[in-house]
Design goal:
Number of domains of chain B: 2
Largest interface: A-B, 22 and 18 residues
Shape of chain B: globular
CATH superfamily of the largest domain in chain A: DhaL domain
Oligomer: heterodimer
Structural class of chain B: alpha/beta
Number of domains of chain A: 4
Structural class of chain A: alpha/beta
Number of helices of chain A: 21
Shape of chain A: globular
Distance between the termini of chain A: 72 Å
CATH topology of the largest domain in chain B: Rossmann fold
Chain lengths: ~550, ~280
């Protein structure tokens, strides 16, 4: 009886909640490293952010409430994790909570975490994760889950307590992570280990420290590199920060009030001062958004046009999840359809003003846009909300990003609406697919027609590396532009436009039309030069250059 | 006993078919700035399309007057016992209305005149007139002919790929194709006529994909009784399409027809399409 009390104190509901809170702070402490380990160049450096946001939604949902059985709590956590899941890593992480929920929820009012039930939950997580991913790849979080389940089962079989099993799993997970480059060559080339797997090992470390009462539970964990080497890309290598923020300093937003404002002049002025200016206005008010090294300069310039107000300055080097979430949820981010009651509605994910407008224009007035993309994967909850708000009970969902596909595929089971997911892997493919959308077709016929188009589109992208990387056997120096086509590196060069030309040369064999979407980083002059250069170089292919306004990528292309 | 077949100039019937089947074609009016022309009589299609993009004042069209119909019907009544008059969709033009009013004006006439709203335009209408004329020469009665015309309007198909929707918009004939308006990409809308008005069918990413789609649509509609390839300005492209889809024409040689100024005013230069009649399901 006495033993049981001690055990209860140590592994009951309260401890479970504390441990999960510790996993969140552990991932937060290692977020930048986890992001930096994410090897797909520039855009995908968000595993740590996605895992952190996913865990945070679990922690926020539970709050301080540790009432109820561990089974009740695990169930709540599983739902919160799924709704809050961001990106592929978030969804695989949600499987961990689902495993806990299924394992603990069936132990019939069982008050304590046991070694055996924890082992069972890891096995369920591993099995379900392999099923949840269309093409499971070894050397990822999946491998880490599976080997953790193996170790946990072995440890539990030796009459291991929960604490012993957790300790065994926490130690072995780091060793599994260390071996991931042997299983996934792209990791070896980039001299990293799997980011999501490392993230999970970090979580286990935090949970164990919390169980032991160590403070702080979330500490910086050294990346287990093969051969005991040190991981070179620490905080500075965070892809997101490097590409989006360090260059751009402060995101500066303010309003100018005046009787008459020459918007063109103001826009040109801001373009001169900073990067990515967006200037718009009506009725004596202009709104300015510009990325500045020194925000004061933009404000001073603004004073020359009128009275300034509603000033908002965000240090993008200190991007936090709160900022990101606020940005995602801010008014006007989600664009809604204009057609009152379409037979079928479309929900599509996109980033960039131009691409958002394009999708709405191509969507027959029945399409709403959820903002998101490579570095800000919308959560299952974001997609679910948009689907539920769509003006029809029949909805086509276009994830438009390979890392959003898995999240999108959760939505049909969570809504009462009839939803078909067309697994578009990029926004340019999504636009092409959307052109096949027709009110004359049934939901299934539309999904099939859009799928067919999506399968025929070749997708390419041009961006700049934010740090030295080796991808698919190609060394790319920081600052160099490179092009990928259907996920293979095609060419590398100094000048993004030169790289674009090479990309089109290599990938347009037999193509009739190439659509080029210009990114937000390009000035109007650069867009003009792009159009002229392409018209000059490619007389035989129809090339349409349109404003995409997407972040990160200088150019996105669709080859049809 | 003989029955006269009347249609209007929006049928786009080539002269040889008009002559062969003895069809009377009443012209609509085209108004360009201060001038009024008779469709296909005092203005050629080529002339119209040449003027269209630069027209300072948007050209408009109008139905034949009631008087014009009365005049034609009275003339035909002298040589025929009955008249069947098949026309462009009443949702696209007041032509049908004029014809009906003309018949009312002629209440003292003993010649039976039947007016049919085909809910179609261009060669989808033109072929209906031809099939009715063929049936009449095979001995069909006026009632048979009216029944046939109504049945045919369900099997008649108009397909048009346009370069731009701007002419349809400015002419106020956009109908349900509204949803295609505003695409920021240079897509080629493919339209049809459904329930008498313009209806969006599909969007082709560019012209050559649109041409390929027009050809594959023919295969989807086959087997066919009648087939014509339509164009406003690009006869060579139309002939090439006709050549490529010749196997689907019962005679192995699809007609090639230029859209007249009236319908052409709304579809604009560069349009390519089809006017066909599907075979009766067996």
């Amino acid at each position: 009886m006495q033993n049981s009390m001690v055990e209860s104190d140590r592994t009951g509901s309260k401890v479970l909640v504390e441990m999960i809170r510790a996993t969140a702070s552990a991932v937060e402490a290692n977020r930048d490293t986890i992001n930096a380990l994410n090897v797909f160049p520039v855009p995908d450096g968000d595993t740590g952010t996605n895992m952190m946001l996913t865990l945070r939604s679990v922690v926020d949902d539970i709050g301080d409430d540790s009432s109820g059985t561990i089974g009740d709590i695990a169930k709540k956590m599983a739902r919160a994790a799924l709704l809050g899941a961001r990106g592929n890593s978030g969804l695989i992480l949600a499987q961990f909570f689902k495993g806990l929920s299924e394992s603990l929820g069936t132990s019939d009012g069982e008050p304590l975490l046991r070694g055996t039930s924890f082992a069972r939950s890891l096995r369920i997580a591993a099995t379900n994760s392999y099923k949840a991913i269309p093409n499971p790849v070894e050397g990822t979080m999946l491998t880490v889950y599976r080997e953790c389940a193996d170790v946990a089962e072995a440890s539990a079989a030796q009459n291991g307590s929960f604490e012993n099993v957790l300790a065994a799993v926490a130690a072995s997970s780091l060793e599994t992570v260390r071996r991931t480059p042997q299983l996934l060559p792209v990791l070896a080339e980039a001299e990293v280990v799997d980011s999501g797997g490392f993230g999970f090992a970090v979580m286990l470390d935090g949970a164990l420290r919390s169980l032991h009462g160590n403070e702080p539970a979330g500490r910086v964990v050294e990346v287990p590199m093969p051969g005991g080497t040190k991981f070179s890309g620490t905080v500075k290598a965070d892809f997101v920060d490097a590409s989006e923020e360090i260059d751009w300093g402060y995101c500066t937003v303010f309003a100018i009030q005046s009787e008459s404002i020459d918007l063109d002049k103001l826009r040109a002025h801001m373009d001169q001062l900073g990067r990515s200016p967006i200037v718009d206005g009506t009725d004596g008010i202009a709104k300015v958004h510009v990325h500045m090294e020194d925000p004061g300069k933009a404000l001073s310039a603004g004073l020359g046009y009128g009275q300034i107000s509603n000033i908002e300055i965000v240090n993008m080097d200190e991007q936090t999840a709160g900022w990101a979430a606020a940005r995602r949820n801010s008014a006007g981010r989600r664009r809604v359809p204009t057609l009152a009651a379409p037979k079928i509605a479309v929900v599509a994910v996109a980033a960039g003003d131009g691409l958002t407008d394009l999708i709405i224009s191509a969507g027959l007035g029945a399409t709403s846009v959820v903002e998101g993309g490579d570095t800000m994967n919308p959560s299952v909850a974001d997609l679910l909300a948009a689907v539920n708000a769509a003006p029809s009970n029949k909805v086509i969902l276009l994830p438009n990003n390979k890392n959003v596909v898995a999240a999108a595929q959760q939505v049909p089971d969570l809504t009462g609406k009839d939803v078909r997911v067309v697994p578009t892997r990029s926004v340019q493919t999504g636009v092409a697919a959307l052109l096949a959308f027709s009110m004359d077709l049934s939901l299934d016929e539309n999904a099939e027609a859009m799928n067919d188009v999506a399968g025929e589109v070749g997708e390419g992208r041009v961006c700049r590396a934010s740090r030295d990387v080796t991808i698919y056997g190609r060394e790319i120096k920081a600052g160099m532009a490179f092009a990928t086509f259907d996920d293979v590196i095609v060419t590398v060069g100094r000048d993004p436009l030169f790289v674009l030309v090479k990309l089109i040369e290599e990938c347009s064999d037999g193509a009739e039309i190439v659509t080029v979407y210009t990114g937000e980083s390009l000035s109007p002059e650069q867009v003009k030069t792009t159009t002229e250069t392409l018209e000059d170089k490619f007389a035989d292919i129809e090339i349409e250059v349109v404003h995409g306004g997407q972040p990160h990528y200088d150019y996105l292309i669709a080859v049809e | 006993m003989s029955i006269a077949v009347v249609t209007d100039s929006t049928s786009d019937l080539p002269a040889d078919l008009v002559e062969k089947h003895g069809i009377s074609v009443i012209p609509l009016n085209v108004h360009i700035e201060d001038e009024t022309f008779l469709d296909g009589v005092t203005i050629s299609s080529d002339e119209m399309y040449r003027r269209l993009p630069d027209a300072k004042v948007i050209p408009t069209t109008s139905a034949p007057s009631v008087g014009a119909f009365v005049e034609l019907y009275e003339k035909l009544a002298k040589t025929h016992d009955e008249i069947i008059s098949v026309h462009i969709s009443s949702k696209l033009s007041l032509t049908h209305n004029s014809a009906v009013n003309a018949v009312a004006e002629m209440s003292s006439t003993t010649t039976p005149i039947a007016v049919v709203d085909t809910q179609q335009a261009s060669m989808a209408l033109g072929w209906t007139a031809v099939r009715v004329a063929e049936a009449i020469s095979d001995g069909a009665s006026l009632d048979d002919s009216v029944a046939l015309a109504k049945k045919l309007s369900e099997r008649a198909v108009f397909i048009g790929m346009v370069d731009t929707l701007k002419y349809l918009v400015r002419g106020g004939r956009i109908g349900k194709a509204q949803g295609f308006v505003g695409s920021l990409l240079r897509v080629k809308p493919i339209l049809t006529i459904r329930e008498g008005e313009a209806h969006p069918l599909e969007r082709a990413r560019n012209r050559s994909k649109g041409i390929a789609r027009i050809k594959s649509l023919v295969a989807e509609y086959a087997p066919l009784e009648k087939l014509a390839v339509l164009y406003t300005t690009d006869e060579d492209d139309a002939r090439e399409i006709a050549n490529d889809i010749a196997e689907f024409d019962p005679d192995g040689s699809p007609a090639v027809a230029q859209l007249g100024p009236v319908v052409g005013n709304y579809l604009g230069p560069g349009m390519l399409g089809l006017g066909l009649i599907r075979a009766e399901p067996s």
